[in-house]
Amino acid sequence: MTQAFRLLPRGYLREENSMSIGVLGDLELQSSYQVIISPALLRSVGMEAQLLVQHAGAPESLASVLARLPDKDMADLDRLALTVHARNAPATPYGNEWLFLPIHPQTIRQRLFAPEKVLSELAALNVSPERIVLEITESATLEDAELEEFVSMYRECGFRIAIDDFGAGASNYDRILSLRPNIVRLDPSLIQNAEHSARAARLFPHMVSLLRESGSLVLVDGITSETQARIAVDADAELLQGDWFAPAAGILPPADAIREKSALLMGAGKLAPDRTELRMRSRFMAVWNGYRDGRELDDIVSDIPDAEITRVYVIDNNGYQIGDTALTPHAMRGRGHPLSDARGACWARRQYFRNAVEQPGRVQITRPYLSLTEQRLCVTFSCVVMRPGLGQVVLCMDALIN
To answer: Which range of residues forms the domain containing residue 395?
Structure first.
């Protein structure tokens, strides 16, 4: 059973300059808020409450406080923080923005955070539970049953649930599937890695897509540059947050400023086309024209100068490869492993084949994938071509990527 408790723990509130300050022992708690935006709606849709702590009159990081605070006091800190955040929440442009409130795992474990008490406090502040998003940081110390009980209680009362810092620590997809959070906040390291690592950038949209398909909105946190913001938008993340939009403060940034940055992201479209991709697409068209005009593949590929392009091959209308693969001077030589010989292989289920057949007038290019024959990451260009003596076939060209 959930134990009864006073919403304000063994501390109290002090009013100073029209702001509520929480006092818990020798700690003073104040609030800061960072805007959360929807780039598609071109406006703010929420704000994350962040705790500012002073210890004996001097600022101290929340991480440092949590590291030395006994587990039994975590619930007191969370309850007082909730009150401080709700009381200090700034006015919002639209009046319906979400307020994201973090909940520590130990608070959930101690079962001292009763929803009826929270509802009572929010009612006194004229705040609807539908505007509150409770953020849970996954923890290896929490059992699934504990999390599910907490989520169920608060969801029934109208609160929304978010999983915080997904992609770090004890994060796992099983909990996403079982808890069915309304929102999943990605750990800031994910977008930072995506900016500086081509491999991480390729994986990022897949992670966002997987979470969206599980039924959650995706919030990309920690955005510090326009490049990161564009990566998040290109990945179809619904919610964005970070210092590039506005640092945490006591008030939210002007609506016009948020609209301007959102419009910049949405109006400019995707990142500028990669020059390497444009060059390889041009090379594919040269190969396609040569093959259509009757030249043999081995002759066409023998003088391809592009180091990324390794293989060219032809697939019939049933999806079977015709003849051997033509290797460029840059391909892996020899047939030293059992996956290297693709003569007669069936590629009927590969997307580059299916897309080419369905859209015969367009050049297709895949997302990066691991080449079965080359055993390296590549993309495949493909397009239907009419070949003398064969009729309609699909010409394919593999190009390696870093």
So the answer is: 275-400
